[in-house]
Structures are given as structure tokens and as C-alpha cells.
Specification:
The chain is of the alpha/beta class and 476 residues long. The chain has 15 helices and 18 strands. The protein folds into two domains: 207 residues, YjeF N-terminal domain (Rossmann fold), CATH 3.40.50; 260 residues, UDP-N-acetylmuramoyl-L-alanine:D-glutamate ligase (3-Layer(aba) Sandwich), CATH 3.40.1190.20. Helix content is 37%, strand content 15%. Helix 6 crosses helix 14 and helix 13 runs parallel beside helix 15. The chain binds ligand NAX and potassium ion.
């Protein structure tokens, strides 16, 4: 598991070290220069352009530039900081705000201040880092199409949320200091970072409630069948999904559930024929009330909003077992929140942005982690907020960003597969937040596997789940 820390936490961890005179910037610059050097075929003679803002982010770039210049690179710096008042500073002071010690070291190493980008082999973005606020306020020159290394984070990305309120610089590599920040892993920001390298500068960061799970975590939380298990003891999952109009949603949700840890699936709904044809191992009925006992219900994909759907949802809620509510079930409970009143059993909600807005009364907005946490608290449920970087939040504020997935998953029916898989994990006894984390992770990997073969359908994703689950089970 990898932690993610907000700006305030990073600053608090830096403060005592800075007070003690620990050379954090020198450490940051050394890590940055090392990575830049690794991206150049040869450091000697390579042309490196630094984009330098007025704060310490620019300082990092200048000190790293000095290190590269000392190894024979031709390093130039475009100073993009805010203008100084006329006459400010003394002789030799450039007309913009800049990290002075960094600039002195840069010049002493042979670096040159320039006014146009020239033809660099590598660009280093040191315009702003964690001290930025609001949209990027610099005149950016036209840059050549060469690799870009972002210092700490791509300028223009909000470090705490991943929001990109204006223009931002797209990086091929981001070298970040001390620990991951939310802006590097979630929201739009995650699309700007390229590969992320964390450079250890000696910070001691506190335990965090925002994390990224990895394969080892998924493996640790995925139920294993025991030697004495039969089809019932592995858990029975109920799937109430699909309608006359959308029978495929039932088929896909059951396909997702079939890849999970449960040994038995009961399907209830208007897609019973289609489900039985495609999944003969499933016990089908038309209504939830006829389905029999289950250890968890998945309700919602393609369910419709009509009165049989409403009745099925209410029957499933009344069974008082763990539940995953998706799609139409979310729309129904958003207009009938009282239906969930008094429930204490685990509940997972899996909204996309539109469903989120219906439930929360407002769209998620730019801070998707805060949005998921807010809804989780308000509804006393685990919330899996779908997106290019899905966020999972528990009512107590614990949150995860899912690192797997592909844009290819943005296709009809993949959410049905996810909901089915999640329900199977709930029925298998996994606590709700880890059930959501595991389902999102495995589903995302299945999307990646399926996308290797070209355009992806939800059936391809469901088909790829098995090999990913096999990977999970054999991991470590
Ligand atoms: N504080 C520390 O101990 C360390 C800081 N480090 C570096 O320092 C950075 C933070 O430095 P600072 O606090 O000086 O802040 P930044 O350098 O990130 O940015 C602040 C400067 O940018 C300007 N600015 C703010 N918002 C802007 C916007 N939207 N558009 C254009 N300019 C804007 C401000 O006027 C200020 O001059 C980190 O991201 C990291 O790169 C590293 O050297 C590691 C150690
Ligand atoms: K930057």
C-alpha cells in the first residue's frame, strides 16, 4: 500500500527538518538531477531547458540544473516568476522573483539565463509546486515536443485535489519529493504526471487515511476457499439486475459475480431467460422475494425504475444483508432515502458522477476524494466514485484511489460487471471498503488485459476477470 499526503502534511513534516538546517532542497535537487540525467542518452553536451518560477520549486530546478551543468550539459533557464518592482534588489538582480541562491549556484556552474526556449533535448518544469494557488499565471512560451520532467508536480495541477483550473504542463516524468500528493494520483491531475518517481528527502510523514492499494493488499484481502467449503459456505450472492429492456445488464452483473469468491449465485429479475442461457450455473427467479437466502445482494444494473424494480429493491433491503447498490438502485434511493433508514449492514454505493449528483444534491466537483468522503459520511456507506481514477471512501474518512484501469473501461456495461464482482466479495465476507477496493483493482486490471486485444466490450472485461483473479490467488 502506498500513502498519499496533502500539502499541509508535507509542509508539517518538512518544518522541523528545515528548522534544524537539513538541506532538503539539495536532496530534492540531487534526486531530480539524477532522474533528468537518466532520461538523456548522454549528459555531456545535452541541452536542458529549465522553466523556473519564483518559489522553491524553481529553486529545485536551478540547483538540479547546476548539477547537470557541472556534468557538461548545456543548461539554460527561462525565468517565469512574477516581475519585481522596478529598482528592487541590487546590481545583478534579474527583473523577476527567483530563488536567489539557486540562481547563483546555477550561474556559477555555467548555466545561462535565456529569454526564449531554443531547441532543448529535455524540459524541466519548475514553475510552481505545492505552493501554487489558482490557475497557472505565467506566459508560457511555445515549447518544442521533447520530454518534460515535472518538479514535484506538473505546474497547473492542484496538489491537494488534482484539479486543473487552467492550463497545465503535461509531464513525461514527475519527480516528487517526500511522498505522493493527491494531485498526482486522482482527478485530471493524474493525466498530466506521466511516470511518477518519489524521491526520499528524509521526511517522516504521519500515517495517512488516503492510500493506493497494490497487488499484495488485494491478495491479502481476497477470500480463499477452504478445504471444508461447499457451495454455500463460500457465500451466496444475489443479483437483482437487468430488465425486459436491458436483460444484458443482468448477464454482465452475473458474469462479474461469477469471477468472485462465492460458490453460488442467485439471479432475480426480468432478464432470467438471458441469464440462464448465458450462465447455466446460476439459479434464476423473476423476483427477489422468490430468490431464497443470500449473504449479499447486488441491486441496480439495468434494473429500471418501475414498480417491480422498486419492490425488488425494497425486498432486498429488508433482507438485512450486505448490499451493493448500483445504477438504477442509486437513482431510486436518491428519491427515497428513507428506504435505507435503520439499516446497519454493510452498504456499498457505486455512483458515476450523474448518480453522485442525484444522491448528494451536487456534482462531485474538483476534489473527488473529498466528494466521495462526504457522501460516504452522509449515507453511512462505502462509496466507490467511478472515474478515470476511481475513489473509494468509507464513512470514517478512510479513502483509496484505485491505480488500475484504462480509458477503454468507459464503455457500456463495464459498471454492471464491477457491481457483480463487488457483490460476490461482500457475500464472501469481505468488509465493504476492501470489497470495493479489491473489485475496482481487479476490474481495472481486467480492463487493461482486455484492451490489449483492441477495442473493449464489457463482455471482454468480464472474460478477462478470471485470469486476473488467478493472478491475485497465485500472488506472493
Ligand atoms: N519546503 C521545503 O522544505 C521543500 C520544498 N521543496 C520545493 O519547494 C516547492 C514549494 O515551494 P514554495 O512554497 O516556494 O512554492 P512554489 O515554488 O510551489 O510556488 C510559490 C511561488 O509561485 C507563485 N505562484 C503561486 N501560485 C501561482 C500560480 N497559480 N501561477 C504562477 N505562480 C504562482 C507564488 O507567488 C510563489 O512565488 C515544492 O513543491 C518543492 O518543489 C523541495 O525543495 C523540498 C523541500
Ligand atoms: K512544477
Amino acid at each position: 500500500m502506498r500513502g498519499v499526503w496533502g500539502v499541509a502534511e508535507v509542509r508539517a513534516a518538512e518544518a522541523p527538518l528545515l528548522a534544524a538546517g537539513v538541506p532538503l532542497m539539495a536532496r530534492a535537487a540531487a534526486g531530480l538531477a539524477r532522474r533528468c540525467a537518466g532520461m538523456l542518452p548522454r549528459v555531456y553536451g545535452a541541452r536542458v531547458l529549465l522553466l523556473v518560477g519564483s518559489g522553491d520549486n524553481g529553486g529545485d530546478a536551478l540547483f538540479a540544473g547546476a548539477l547537470l551543468a557541472r556534468r557538461g550539459a548545456q543548461v539554460s533557464a527561462l525565468l517565469l516568476g512574477s516581475p519585481l518592482p522596478t529598482g528592487a534588489g541590487g546590481a545583478g538582480v534579474v527583473g523577476v522573483r527567483v530563488h536567489e541562491a539557486g540562481l547563483a549556484a546555477f550561474r556559477a556552474a555555467g548555466g545561462r539565463v535565456v529569454t526564449s526556449p531554443g531547441r532543448p533535448d529535455l524540459v524541466v518544469d519548475g514553475i510552481v509546486g505545492i505552493g501554487a494557488s489558482g490557475p497557472l499565471r505565467v506566459e508560457l512560451p511555445e515549447l518544442p515536443d521533447v520530454p518534460v520532467v515535472a518538479v514535484d508536480l506538473p505546474s497547473g495541477v492542484d496538489a491537494d485535489t488534482g484539479h486543473v483550473p487552467g492550463r497545465a504542463l503535461r509531464a513525461d516524468v514527475t519527480v516528487t519529493f517526500g511522498g505522493l500528493k493527491p494531485g498526482l494520483v486522482v482527478g485530471e491531475g493524474a493525466r498530466y504526471v506521466g511516470q511518477v518517481e518519489v524521491v526520499d528527502i528524509g521526511l517522516t510523514l504521519p500515517p495517512t487515511d488516503l492510500n493506493i492499494a497494490d497487488m499484495a493488499d488485494i491478495c491479502a484481502h481476497w477470500p480463499r476457499s477452504r478445504s471444508y467449503d461447499d457451495k454455500y459456505t463460500r457465500g451466496v450472492v444475489g443479483v437483482a439486475a437487468g430488465s425486459r429492456r436491458y436483460p444484458g445488464a443482468g448477464v454482465l452483473a452475473v458474469a462479474g459475480a461469477s469471477a468472485g469468491p462465492t460458490g453460488y449465485i442467485r439471479y432475480a429479475g426480468a432478464g432470467a431467460h438471458a441469464v440462464r442461457d448465458r450462465h447455466p450455473h446460476v439459479v434464476v427467479t423473476d423476483r427477489v422475494s422468490d430468490a431464497g437466502r443470500v449473504q449479499a445482494w447486488v441491486v441496480g444494473p439495468g434494473l429500471s425504475l418501475d414498480s417491480p424494480a422498486q419492490a425488488d429493491l425494497r425486498t432486498a433491503i429488508a433482507e438485512r444483508v450486505p448490499m451493493c447498490l448500483d445504477a438504477d438502485a442509486l437513482t431510486l434511493v436518491s428519491t427515497h432515502p428513507d428506504w435505507l433508514a435503520g439499516r446497519e449492514e454493510p452498504l456499498v454505493l457505486t455512483p458515476h458522477d450523474g448518480e453522485y449528483e442525484r444522491l448528494a444534491g451536487a456534482p462531485p466537483g474538483p476534489d473527488r476524494v473529498a466528494a466521495a468522503r462526504g457522501l460516504a459520511k452522509a449515507m453511512d456507506a462505502t462509496v466507490l466514485l467511478k472515474g478515470p481514477r476511481t475513489v473509494i471512501a468509507a464513512p470514517d474518512g478512510t479513502a483509496f484511489v484505485n491505480p488500475t484501469g484504462t480509458r477503454a473501461l468507459a464503455t457500456a456495461g463495464t459498471g454492471d460487471v464491477l457491481a457483480g464482482l463487488l457483490g460476490s466479495l461482500l457475500a464472501g465476507g469481505v468488509e465493504p471498503t476492501w470489497a470495493a477496493v479489491c473489485a475496482a483493482y481487479v476490474h481495472g486490471l481486467a480492463g487493461q488485459h482486455a484492451a490489449r486485444g483492441g477495442p473493449v466490450t464489457a463482455s471482454d472485461v468480464a472474460g478477462a476477470l478470471r485470469e486476473v483473479v488467478a493472478e491475485v490467488l497465485s500472488y506472493g
